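Input for the complex:
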Amino acid sequence: MHALLDGLMQLWHETGIYLASQGDGWKSVVMVLVCLVLLYLAIKKEFEPLLLLPIGFGGLLANLPGTAEFMTAVPDTTRGAEAMGAFLGIFYYYGIESGLCPLLIFMGVGAMTDFGPLLANPKTALLGVAAQFGIFTTVIGAVLVHLYVPGVDFFDPSNTLLSEPQQVLRAAASIGIIGGADGPTAIYTTTRLYRELLGAVAVAAYSYMALVPIIQPPIMRLLTTRSERAIEMKQLRPVSKLEKILFPLVVLGLCAALLPSATPLIGALMFGNLARESGVVQRLSDTMQNALVNIITIVLGLGVGMKLSAAAFLRPQTLGILALGLLAFAVATASGVLMGKLMNLLSREPINPLIGAAGVSAVPMAARVANKVGQEENPHNFLLMHAMGPNVAGVIGSAVAAGVLIAVCSRLAP
Amino acid sequence: MHALLDGLMQLWHETGIYLASQGDGWKSVVMVLVCLVLLYLAIKKEFEPLLLLPIGFGGLLANLPGTAEFMTAVPDTTRGAEAMGAFLGIFYYYGIESGLCPLLIFMGVGAMTDFGPLLANPKTALLGVAAQFGIFTTVIGAVLVHLYVPGVDFFDPSNTLLSEPQQVLRAAASIGIIGGADGPTAIYTTTRLYRELLGAVAVAAYSYMALVPIIQPPIMRLLTTRSERAIEMKQLRPVSKLEKILFPLVVLGLCAALLPSATPLIGALMFGNLARESGVVQRLSDTMQNALVNIITIVLGLGVGMKLSAAAFLRPQTLGILALGLLAFAVATASGVLMGKLMNLLSREPINPLIGAAGVSAVPMAARVANKVGQEENPHNFLLMHAMGPNVAGVIGSAVAAGVLIAVCSRLAP
Amino acid sequence: MHALLDGLMQLWHETGIYLASQGDGWKSVVMVLVCLVLLYLAIKKEFEPLLLLPIGFGGLLANLPGTAEFMTAVPDTTRGAEAMGAFLGIFYYYGIESGLCPLLIFMGVGAMTDFGPLLANPKTALLGVAAQFGIFTTVIGAVLVHLYVPGVDFFDPSNTLLSEPQQVLRAAASIGIIGGADGPTAIYTTTRLYRELLGAVAVAAYSYMALVPIIQPPIMRLLTTRSERAIEMKQLRPVSKLEKILFPLVVLGLCAALLPSATPLIGALMFGNLARESGVVQRLSDTMQNALVNIITIVLGLGVGMKLSAAAFLRPQTLGILALGLLAFAVATASGVLMGKLMNLLSREPINPLIGAAGVSAVPMAARVANKVGQEENPHNFLLMHAMGPNVAGVIGSAVAAGVLIAVCSRLAP
Amino acid sequence: MIVQAFELLFLGMGSVFAFLALLVLVMSAMAVVLQRFAPASPDDAPMSPLLSENMDSDAEILAVAIATARDASNRHVSGC
Amino acid sequence: MIVQAFELLFLGMGSVFAFLALLVLVMSAMAVVLQRFAPASPDDAPMSPLLSENMDSDAEILAVAIATARDASNRHVSGC
Amino acid sequence: MIVQAFELLFLGMGSVFAFLALLVLVMSAMAVVLQRFAPASPDDAPMSPLLSENMDSDAEILAVAIATARDASNRHVSGC
Ligand code: NA
Ligand code: NA
Ligand code: NA
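Predicted:
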């Protein structure tokens, strides 16, 4: 009888209710609520549900009190079988910290992406350049926040491997890349530079991508005149199969020549695209777009969710990241639109500046938004295919930007 | 010429025929026969072929003499590339010992399971409670067998990490969980508690699940009257989409609050179910139910088969495990039926006690058996949907039972 | 400003253009050209594109200057998370060096292969024996090349673990297995014996398999008379389902009895085939043939491509390997045809010697070639199903040959 | 050991009962609340055992039981 | 730090611009060369925004945009 | 080394021959036994080279050869 009561007591001391009521346990409860909000947004509001549902559920699992041993333990390969990690920890370690999952998702994105609209009108790629301005201004913004906003800093004194400027720059770059509006790029960059922020950066990136139809239109309307928004663009020329096959090789060649640190992202993207366009490996292209990308999305989502721990997320920095991420999207949109206006002035052929907003990536949502805002002024205006050019150029642009951030931040002197 | 004869001699000394004729080699031959019986049951008798075919073939591969180096070597990550393991060993180590495969299969089960019948008639969950009685009485039975049946013991003196009571309780829990009638739960629990028994426990669990149509009906008929078996139940109410979406979150919440050690199983099951019911991640749910669960089934089956080694299987314990596993199924069935009778007495609405037998899990076979036995008495009696309630409740019930077994046995004093 | 110039200079020193112009950098450029040729052959000439496209692209990625850290770093599990490797390196280490990928592809091949034509006419298996002659004569050829062709040797003095004869025999065996005309077998064997040659061996194997319609016909015409090529064969008997189910078990049994070192390849092949023929695990068989084999092909192709490094590939040995590989295919074809002539002389039923050429494997290309050459002489001659017998026997034959090579070369005294 | 095994029986059955009994309560409460504030829409399929009366084969009955789940995989397997 | 952040701005935007501007040049050159030596065959689908005029739903417009890619997955999901 | 290479030739060809010759024997024996005790049912498809006579394209001939295997994947790829 006594043993039974003892056993009952021990079970009780292991319950989530008991643990949540001890010490910092309440923080887990707050995180559970945060994750439930993410699930609500994913399911009810359809905010990028393919990612936010696994991330939210992974966050739930990671924040249940007393489950670390069964859920989030990360493998420690130097210690053999005794430390092979648990469910989410294994996903995180082998899938995300290794960089594999974001790269394989990018491969799937490549296999799903038709670069035809960009090839038909190459100069729209410049709109994809302008939209990356959001990334780099946000890096500056993050440094300013660290320096001048009390209570929000991106420096962990207990990290003795990296000096303060190194940490702050890496964190700022991880926050800035939210403005790339590209989930795999943001996750890959953050895992290379400052993993502590992974949860917040991923949540901000996917949430704002889902919010593109709300964030972009006011900015687009503010910066353009009615007549600009009504501009019709001339039909795109057909693109030959050969051009589409050569395109991924050309992009990879430029990347290798100029920016080796961007080759994992660009390489994966272009491998997927070559598999798609070559036409000779339909089986592989189908698998990249379906079974493989789905499996990897599950692993990536649950693994990223694991980084939504109370210790990492319930800090003033997270609010800073959310604010800076919003800034990044807004600046990127504005830069794209302004570049569109400039190109319209300089170009012989008319260019509707709205398609500049699609340069932020967020494929294909941003292109769809450009089309919709254009149709509000001129119902005969079909900008969708034109906006796909800057849209896919923006994917390449943010991968290149990620390469620069990784290269520069990795070699900063301590 | 001499070298050639030497080479021939060496090849001969490596042949399976030569090795099987040496020392304990005959045991491998016996195990090969055991595995061929498993394959026969899987292919000809269609005993859970999705699992028993890979398990049987994995057992074949593992018992071929002289192939350990190429087949069953387990990775030793502390030794670097020299010890990365072989085919089945890699599957076993990374897929099963890590716990990943049973959890991912459980995720697929969640994505395949409609908890609607349980939501439509919640109190049938209590039938899923009663059926877990088989698990715990079998634990007691296993301890009794260890203590009082000569020649059958569950204690390995060479294991210095665990004391005798620890080992016996862990082994008894691993045997008891066979009564959960749920493959992934049984495999997960055994890998956490007493891996030596993995092969026998998995084979017993899947074999008895396949034998449910033979084991259950006599017990069901013995414990019920004709009029009880003829009871018709009233039509289930429709269940709203929102209830189905909230259900996985509610179950996970209860699990986290009460029993953190069950969260890996319950969490994986409910993640799959939320993906299914949310309706916004159809791609992921499809992949969980098809490509992913199929790939993982191959890995799990071959990996579990590897544990059918002669040294582990050809012992009197295995007969004990098979007998105790049968006892577990029988007690579980009887408890479910008796609870059904009790509920029928107490409840306003009529409850056919046969659906209590479906509480053992073995989805959907046990529900089908309940339906069939019911129709023998009353051809207008359609119990299938009613039996699905206790059936899926049994899945949750055995995962909870597994959580208790893992929690209590892991913290036993030496 | 100064810092900016510094940063620009550093970025410049990391560019592919700069690195390619330094030291051995030009070799990378040559390898990039080699890989572009592979991609051209895969896409334009449809040379085994499922493999050569990923291999070629993996080779591209591996040879981009300055990307080793992001692309090809191999995991070092003894050093923990700091050395978890990069994209291609992870694929290579866990997928290929472990042997998993070739075995899983072989499992898919088994699930795709109908051994019915072989069962209907068992003695055509002997044609699959003769064609393996190409493997072993090439081993001798490779040793002769090492000994007598100046500048081409298969010995790396810096490898202190293996003596010169050991290295040369292992390399010769890896080259010889090209003549097996079977990708997974060649890759598996080379990873077990002499990984340095993996890139060249894989490229040679898949290229010559694609060239079967060009390499084989002249040899076949040279060695046969018009009347032999016109021989019609009698219709194959129907094969029962039971024979097809027993076949994989019989093959595995023989393999285990005679040659344990061949069990990984034969075991994987026969597991896939049993899953196919048993008829009770259609889901698993489908997945093996589609999602799983496609995913593994991507991993294998990129991982093998990584071994196309300049240091390993731009050596006179590679030319030797290509020449010896061609020899292997030619000898194998000739041996098969001559064996066909012999069997035609000795057998009661007429045997068209052309089907002997299909014994080289290269399923189903070689069987198709036999059919085509036969129809050139006699338009009513349909050899395809008859050629499938030796064709699939050749797959088993080269796996057995691989087993012998691995067994003998692994235990050579130093 | 035998004491510990009985202890497991009580703790285990107690936990399973507590868990599922609580779940019954929550499910029942949820049903009441949702039927008041968010009634089931007509497109939520009723689960009618009567539907089964027209079925003649065992396989068809099973098909209803695990309907949606196997749907996807069957379609996949049958190719159409 | 703030200096380094501005340095990142210049290096980063410079690299992105250099990369994509070069890509524009190469794509334009490729278009000219290929249209001379390997003109687009009639089966290369033109990308006509006019096609969209007959569309009434948002979803259909999207369907054109990511046409082939989603094709595969839709077929897969709808089973046919 | 050259001796060892010839040794490999003999051992290797010997093993391959032994293996496949035994396989021929077992297959032949199996055919005899099974045709006596479990004759092929009419639904076991005969493998008729005559079937091919009506075929006009190379691709169709191949299609027969690797029939079932590619079936699944073709259906998968073509979506139906
Ligand atoms: Na972007
Ligand atoms: Na159960
Ligand atoms: Na071969």
